[in-house]
Structures are given as structure tokens and as C-alpha cells.
Amino acid sequence: MPSRRMFLQALPALAGCLTLPAIGADTWCATWGTAPAGPPPSASLQTFGNQTLRLIVHTSIPGNRVRVRLSNEMGSAPLRIGAAHIGLRASGANLVAGSGRDLTFGGSPAATVAPGDPLLSDPVDFAVPALADLAISLWLPGSTQATSIHDLALQTNYVSVAGNYANANALPVQRTLGSWPFLAEVDVTGGAATPSAIVALGDSLTDGVRSTSNANRRWTDVLARRLRTEATPGSPPVAVVNRGISANSLLTDYPTALLSGRDALERFDRDVLATAGARWLFVLIGINDILYSPASSPIPAESLQAGWLQMIARARTRGMQVIGATLLPYEGHPYFTTARDAVRQRANTWIRTSGAWDAVADFDAVLRDPARPARLLPAFDGGDHLHPNDAGYEAMAKSIPLGWFGV
Prior knowledge:
CATH superfamily of the largest domain: SGNH hydrolase
Shape: globular
Largest sheet: 7 strands, antiparallel
CATH architecture of the largest domain: 3-Layer(aba) Sandwich
Helix content: 10-25%
Number of domains: 2
Structural class: alpha+beta
Radius of gyration: 21 Å
CATH topology of the largest domain: Rossmann fold
Distance between the termini: 31 Å
Low-confidence stretches: 1-25
CATH class of the largest domain: Alpha Beta
């Protein structure tokens, strides 16, 4: 049985790193991102009326100019933005005094986003620190339903009492949210070196289920911190953009569960290729396709392989390098069956040995119990035998060689 220290496998040609040629000195790059989904079922649909949202996000890389991408891509009605603002978060819903800047859209402080559309703000001069909390404030002047939303923020966000408080340092809070409505990405440019981004496409294991809320303990967060604190001095900044959606699948849409997101192949262009500065794709998805398939005759591993090959091909049309991650063990979970786990094992063998990827992160080897390889090591188990705890997510991130990204 391999030692747990034998965390990763990579193709011999990648003994150095996975870097690509420079892409220009003034290129935009995402410092943060999430994946919109929806619309929610009517029973859980949130409505805002003449209120200001203050949405908190945690950056990965710095810059001195910023722009924000909003989303009405799951909406069926126009989204009216009366005012928008960005600032450094001091604590709670409050801004660092004097840190904020108003955002505009084509020179206007207001915008209307058609159903199905994204909206990119105008660039604004604004010093964005690495590994810092930003507050994006949106005043919604009318009655607005949160149809485009990332449901699991693991971050407390804020809704004001009635009124426009977009540029107020202190937000008068009516209630809090555990989601990110209408927000998809924050981009930066203008740093000392050309930045680039890793896009992590996945499900709840990337979304961070069972990690600590308001603590940025997903594996992607830990990787972002490593890329800042352990990188070789002077190496270009590398961002980490989390496009995980809890309960998301590689191949299948679930019309009654749209908060789980469109399947990864369907949302690929929006959530991967449209990410500013994307140069690496990190793929950890497929376990839900197995769990949700029939217990005694689950999905064939070959179907997952075909989906992954499509992702690899589509990413490489944009010159991206693609990293595959093995699927985690989950014995003890209510959906575990030996037939389903046999599919996972076959899929993992293909991930490790096919040569299809530019590199492989063997997260299965990192987290499994050596005494019971189909089960998570108890020290890494978040409690449901499927999702890691904070220590497990940290182990995943620490197993990734930073040399893959040229740092």
C-alpha cells in the first residue's frame, strides 16, 4: 500500500512546472470567483426590496485596479442595480474608512442586466491586497429576487434596512445571508508582475462543505495562502478561483435541484474559460455522478472518462494546463455501496495512469485510511464520511507541488 506521503503523481515531463508563456503585462486576472447557480425553488427564493447587499469575498492575489463581474445568468427578469461600491472590509459589515470606491457600468452608476446575462463593471483604481477581505455592495432599488446565486458561501454576508447604503462605511444590517447573490468574480490588474489563475472546478469537495465558516479553510483557500507565503520571491502572482458547487455533477443536470448548478460540462465555458487570467484547470468532480446513479448498476467509469476528456480538450483550446484529482473515499456514507465504490476505484486508476492529464493530484491517497482504504482517515473526516474537515482540506492543499505553477 502506498505511503500517505506519496501524495501526488505527475507525468515525467512535468518534473519542472506547468507554466505557460507570459500573456501580457497588463492582463486582467481573477483574484476571487464563485460559480452562480439557480434559480432556487420558490420556497427558498430570497427577495430584496430597496435594500443594499454587502457581500464579503477573500482575495488571493493583489492588484492596483479592480473590476467586478455580476450575474443575472439564471434570472428570468431584468436585474436593476441602483449603485455599486467596493471597499476593504474592516469587520462585520463595516468598511475600512476611506478605502471604498464607487463602481460604474459604462460610465453610469446604475445598470440593468438582462435575463441570462453577466455584467462587468468599469475598471477603477483601487489597491487590492492579497489574502484580504473585500466588501462589494449592491443597492437593489426595486423588488429583486435572488435567482442567480451561489448558495454555499461559508461566509456571512449582509442585507441592509431599506435604502441605498452602497458607499456607507457602516451598513445598517437588517439580516445576514449565507450565500452570494448576483456576484461571480473580482478581477485585478496592474501589479508588479503578470498574474495568472488556477480555476478549481468541482462539487462540494471544492465548495468546502464541512469546513469552518468565515475562516477560509477550503482546500483552495489553503492553496492560495501557500502560493503567497511559500512562493519563491519575485515569482509571478498565482490566483486561485473556486468554481465548486455543492452537489454538482460532471454529466447530469437535476431540474429539481438547480442550486446544485448546471452540470460541469454545461457550465464549463462560463465558469472556466471566461475566468480572467485562467492558465490552469484543476478538476475534482465525478463523485456525485457515482453517488446519484443506481446503487446496484451505477454509472460506468467510461462515462466519467469521456466527460473528463472533453474538459481537457476544451481547456487546451485556450492553452490551459489541466490537473486531474482522484475521487475521495467515502465508505460509511449513506450512499456507499461496493458497486459504486468499484466505479470510483476504476475511475481513479484511469486518472492516475491514463496520461490524459498534465498532472495528477492523488487526493485519494492523501486522505484515505491505510487500514481501510475505502474510508477517510478519521483525523480528516468531516463527520459524514464523504467531506473532509479543516485538517483534511489542509492536507489536500499541502500535497500540491507549487512548482507546477512556476512559483
